[in-house]
């Protein structure tokens, strides 16, 4: 299951005075405000416009969901998490959103671990490390832990490491973590070494500039055992790792595996040869935003997670979600996925037996996108439809950042994945670990 990283900063042109006072490119801007009112009795030839608003310290900037937990980052660098995860080196059930890290510029959540990237490009991870996904020890696994990720292995001295890598971005999924750096893609955990099934407990250089004429990934995403990215420049999607259900974009009947493994060679081309502008990897499927304004998915589809009707067992050929429906901001969960339409409203498809699709039902899966309903008390939908800026999908739940800067979640809540208590039909708060809700509930 994939950590679904969603950053919502966007670059914008501001007044020269503002530009001169802020040189940190990571402090990107949200959408601009409306134009100024006309001033005075004489109309101006062109209405004045306010400069784009800088995010406030408490504005949520990105959100990422894992197996049974979720984390969200504020502009001030504070990271809040909730659900079942590891914190400060031990397993813990967090009932409500709790501060987990400060000073982050990006977050990434896997099945049972989470990571944050600070302003210096250093990665810090916490939670479950049984397959090396925390990157904290050389040649050893840890049950639960936390700390800064080590550097790659020192080729001259066993059990020593080189200086830590400076990463430009980080992503997590399943029991794996990867980071983008100037020298290539480094991974640790279950997908840390593409040459054999297993793990790598510290960062390992997997893809470099010399691999298949690759000239750099703009973004990467991790599923349960596969990694995909889209190339800088042309937006071509390339994957490596597990491909049992074509989740790496290769037909399993004809795929070339690394000798002695079921691992597809790294950076193999998929059916999306150009135009990708965002990518998200699910449990055993992959989805991508296309610059043309639609979403395509490939891989396993037994639960309808490719978003096309009728559902297939699997498909190496990319399938247009909703028949080419105008969507963006795709977030792939373990067996379901969600995206936004032009009105910032959420649509989901795939596995829905715990309400993760958010359409008010929980008794079937769907291979066609379903509109997410309005705010719920946990028992019935009773509010207006939520407009979102970003989405994240976990194993059996979904969360998003609303345009009102609140966090909303829906789906399974047995491990407090929704970050809040639910309300029963009698109006009373349900006990911890009770139920699920097939529509958004307010988290914070």
Report the β-strand fraction as a percent range. 35-45%
**Strand arrangement, major sheet:** 1-2-3-4-5
The H/E string reads EHEEEEEEEEEEEEEEEEEEEEEEEEEEEE
CATH superfamily: Regulator of chromosome condensation 1/beta-lactamase-inhibitor protein II
Percent helix range: under 10%
Q: Which radius of gyration do the C-alpha atoms yield?
A: 21 Å
How far do the termini sit from each other?
24 Å
SS-based class: mainly beta
Low-confidence stretches: 2-50, 86-90
Summarize this structure as a short list of keywords or feature phrases.
444 residues, mainly beta, five-stranded antiparallel beta sheet, 29 strands, 1% helix, globular
Task: Describe the secondary structure blueprint for this structure.
Layout: E1 6-7, H1 16-21, E2 60-65, E3 69-74, E4 79-87, E5 90-101, E6 104-109, E7 113-118, E8 123-129, E9 142-148, E10 169-173, E11 176-181, E12 184-189, E13 200-207, E14 217-222, E15 226-231, E16 237-242, E17 263-269, E18 276-281, E19 285-290, E20 295-300, E21 314-320, E22 328-332, E23 336-340, E24 346-350, E25 366-371, E26 388-393, E27 397-402, E28 407-412, E29 436-442
Antiparallel strand pairs: 1-2, 2-3, 3-4, 4-5, 6-7, 7-8, 8-9, 10-11, 11-12, 12-13, 14-15, 15-16, 16-17, 18-19, 19-20, 20-21, 22-23, 23-24, 24-25, 26-27, 27-28, 28-29
Structural overview:
There is one protein chain. The chain is built from 1 helix and 29 strands. The protein is mostly beta strands and 444 residues long. It has one domain: Regulator of chromosome condensation 1/beta-lactamase-inhibitor protein II (Methylamine Dehydrogenase, Chain H, 7 Propeller). It has a 5-stranded antiparallel β-sheet with strand order 1-2-3-4-5, with no helix packed on it. A 4-stranded antiparallel β-sheet has the order 6-7-8-9, with no helix packed on it. A hairpin with a 3-residue loop joins strand 14 and strand 15. The longest helix has 6 residues. The protein is globular. The two termini are 24 Å apart. The N terminus is likely disordered.
